[in-house]
C-alpha cells in the first residue's frame, strides 16, 4: 500500500469532491480516480460512495480514514525519529550497578543524564556484582555498568569516576570503636566478615594485599553476599567487615565505620563494550567528565 494513495484518499475524504481534491494534490481528476479505485481493490471494500453529483464516505471508509491519517503522521515522524535516535536524543541505555556502595554515583549519573537526554530511557538494572557485571556486558544484557576496579575481561572500555576510602565496620561496643581511625595491624586478629571472592573481587583483593604487606592475612570467618549483609552481621557480633566509605548511607544500627589508614581507596568506574554502536550510550559517555568531576568534589562520608 503506497503512501501517495493514502494521501490521495485522505484529501478526497476531506473535500468529498474529486475536482477540489485533485486541485489540492496538484494533479488531474482521472489519475486521482484511478488511485482511489486501486486502493479500494487493495483494501477489498468500497471506501467512497460516489455519484455524478455527490461523494460520501462509507462506514468502512470512515474507519479507514482514521488509520490512514495515523499512518501518514507516522510516516512524517519517522525520519525525525531516526535522526534523533542517531544523535542519541532518544533510545534506551541499560545500566547495571555494583551494589549499595555505588548508589551515590548512580543517583548523580541518573539525574544528570535525565537533564541532558530527557527522552532517552535509562533502565537501571541491578545490583550486579564485579564478575557478574563483566559477564552481563559480554552477553549484551546491559549496555554499561558501574563496577569496582580492577576489571577482568577483554573487549571492555573502562572509565574511572571516583574512589572511595576503605573503612572497617565495627560493633559499637568494640574496643576500637571510639578511635578516629585504625590501621591493618590493629585488626590482624579480628574475625572478618568478607565479600565472597567471586563477587567482591576488587575489595577482597585490596584487603588481602594490605594485610600481606604486614606479613599476615585477614581472619575470614564468614562470607556475605553484599555490603548490607556484611554490616548486619557485624552488628550481630559475628566479626568486623571492610566496606567502602560510601556504605555510610546504609546506617545499620549498632555499627560504626572507621577509616583504615593504610588501605588505599577503591576505584569505582563505568564499563561498557568497546565499539558499542548505541548512540544513547555514547550520550551517557559524553557526560562522564562532568560526572567524575562532581563525584571527586564530594569527600567520603565516614
Automatic annotation (TrEMBL):
InterPro entries cross-referenced by the UniProt entry: LysR_HTH_N, LysR_subst-bd, WH-like_DNA-bd_sf, WH_DNA-bd_sf
- Source organism per entry reads Streptomyces ochraceiscleroticus
HTH lysR-type domain location, by residue?
Answer: 1-58
Q: Which UniProt keywords apply?
A: DNA-binding, Transcription, Transcription regulation
Q: Which family, according to UniProt?
A: Belongs to the LysR transcriptional regulatory family.
Q: Which domain of life is it from?
A: Bacteria
Name of this chain's protein: LysR substrate-binding domain-containing protein
One of this protein's Pfam families, by short name? LysR_substrate
Taxonomy of the source species: Bacteria, Bacillati, Actinomycetota, Actinomycetes, Kitasatosporales
